[in-house]
Amino acid sequence: MTQLSSEQDFLTLIDKYFPSENGHITLGRGDDCSILRTDKELCISKDLFLEDIHFRRSYFSAADIGYKSLAVNISDIAAMGGRPKGFELGLIIPPSLGIDFWEPFFQAMSDLAKTNNIILAGGDLSKGQYLGISITVWGEPAENGIFLSRGNAKIGDILFLHGQAGMARTGLLALEELGPQAAKLYPESVKAHLRPTMRVKEGLKLAASSHVRGLMDLSDGLARDLPRFLNCCTGSLGAEISLPESSLHPEIIHYAKSKSASACDHAYLGGEDYALFGAVSAKGFKELTSSIPDLKAIGKITAGSKIYLNGAIYAADGFDHFSK
Amino acid sequence: MTQLSSEQDFLTLIDKYFPSENGHITLGRGDDCSILRTDKELCISKDLFLEDIHFRRSYFSAADIGYKSLAVNISDIAAMGGRPKGFELGLIIPPSLGIDFWEPFFQAMSDLAKTNNIILAGGDLSKGQYLGISITVWGEPAENGIFLSRGNAKIGDILFLHGQAGMARTGLLALEELGPQAAKLYPESVKAHLRPTMRVKEGLKLAASSHVRGLMDLSDGLARDLPRFLNCCTGSLGAEISLPESSLHPEIIHYAKSKSASACDHAYLGGEDYALFGAVSAKGFKELTSSIPDLKAIGKITAGSKIYLNGAIYAADGFDHFSK
């Protein structure tokens, strides 16, 4: 029996059987969202959030699970520069969980939905042995009608980041090692893992700028997501990334030191940061920082297909939910 | 710890936290689909399809699972009189399944998608201990722009059925008892359970008629779905249902006899038939049968809230995926 051992094997197999675009879908598989043609376009995305795969109940509270399961979906809409509008909720429900779990779960999810003005449109419930949340979310474009996909970056473009690379990975590893106690040593990293910040407003501002050439959210870390971003662009593009230790959060540096690891590599590997990452013309970047002050330049697009991290050539893997 | 012991408990809890309609959703939770407002409306629905909850691998082939997981979703679009357009696919993938499983799985799903001219727009993959399929599907209305929800039936309306009530239940129970051998004794019932027929064309024809007052698909059986249908209508409505043994498939009668049970009760309990069930004005029914010859009248809407089956008052439960 031949095994399908990676996500890519599955995607290749799926591509073999399913066309990815037609007159209805104007942007198909491979980006953060797909775009459905309606007279007013919607973008739509789906993320599974499963016990012992994406979260552990030993250090995620019910409210954390309710929040994050919806948040990671909303982030895909933000990554298109879209405005989230609605979602469908599938719940796989283990018999052991009672109302003391579900009340805070729904409360946190509902609060996040309200903050983002999105409505729960429907869904499905089922018993199961492990808790699982399957959400499909969709959104509308900003006033100019434009969604930001990943492609279109050009040589010389500035690569920018809104959010921190490596914080959530620090939180995850600390939580795996120390359990809930990790919050004492690494409070902000733990928060970044349990309660990632949504960046819908920033996404909408980026989509409103004519200078932004591509956008995505960092769900699997720069090491994995940057090559994906470049692969979506036309031609053979590379990148120079600058993540000096001085730019990193003290918790990242502290954690890496405790493991005798490079803090820069640790941040670059990242994973689950849900920071917004994209490309903008050098001219446009300055303009953007006046409306989004905490937007950081972390590198630029170069000719050729090589990736440099802090001046040295880089080849490594990022975070893979599937093979984790 | 207070347990949530039924689907209704969950729906009540969800209703407590989430509004069900706003300017974006013009038809919210509680029907087969929710309707999103776009300039051209879409209807959208989601169904989980989980190992050992909704199917067993001991008698479902990989192809059966690929087919049925998408089919039960398409049926929700048919139940709105809609035209399915696209879907998102979430897969929970146990490590033991190799390419010899996934090839026929995707082939059958792809064939069904092609037959219905719908496109796989995206989704998510994850490892997991049990196989699970989570699909969100959406569709457009027919040319007149009308979706058929459940409400609006009136006293004197004909209740109609397209498809057989009780076939899939016969297949399920025989398969649970006999395994794949059940197909020898109950070939059509087993097929009805493993490969339910989609009724998209009939749904579109029903939506094109101005006489049809409400439509749904029988996923949980008449005993459970009929009260839901009546509850969606204005006022206190009842129904008289006629399912004489002479109208039932011989396999249903044979199975019920082998258990010394009533074939009529068995058919009425049903479950997973994905037959279309609805209400139409008495005048309109005749007109409909000329365009949909195999549409059957099985009863009528009455005043008061009582339900009669073959002349006797009826109170019982149908099929509940959740508490199964």
TrEMBL record, chains A, B:
Q: What is the lineage of its organism?
A: Bacteria, Pseudomonadati, Thermodesulfobacteriota, Desulfovibrionia, Desulfovibrionales
Q: Where does Mg(2+) 4 bind?
A: 32, 45, 76
Ligand binding (ATP): 123-124, 150, 219
Annotated Mg(2+) 1 binding sites: 47, 124
Binding of substrate occurs at 54, 272, 319
Q: What keyword terms does UniProt attach to this protein?
A: ATP-binding, Kinase, Magnesium, Metal-binding, Nucleotide-binding, Thiamine biosynthesis, Transferase
Q: Which CDD domains match?
A: ThiL
One Gene Ontology term of the biological-process aspect is:
thiamine biosynthetic process
Reaction(s) the record says it catalyses = thiamine phosphate + ATP = thiamine diphosphate + ADP
Q: Does the keyword Transferase apply?
A: yes
State any single GO MF term. ATP binding
**What residues does Mg(2+) 3 bind to?**
32, 76, 217
- Asked if the Swiss-Prot or TrEMBL record annotates the protein with the keyword Nucleotide-binding, the reply is yes
Q: What does this protein do?
A: Catalyzes the ATP-dependent phosphorylation of thiamine-monophosphate (TMP) to form thiamine-pyrophosphate (TPP), the active form of vitamin B1.
- Which Enzyme Commission number(s) are listed? 2.7.4.16
Sites binding Mg(2+) 2 sit at 47, 76
Quote the record's binding site residues for Mg(2+) 5.
220
General remark: Reaction mechanism of ThiL seems to utilize a direct, inline transfer of the gamma-phosphate of ATP to TMP rather than a phosphorylated enzyme intermediate.
The family note in this entry says:
Belongs to the thiamine-monophosphate kinase family.
What is the protein named?
Answer: Thiamine-monophosphate kinase
Q: Give the record's pathway.
A: Cofactor biosynthesis; thiamine diphosphate biosynthesis; thiamine diphosphate from thiamine phosphate: step 1/1
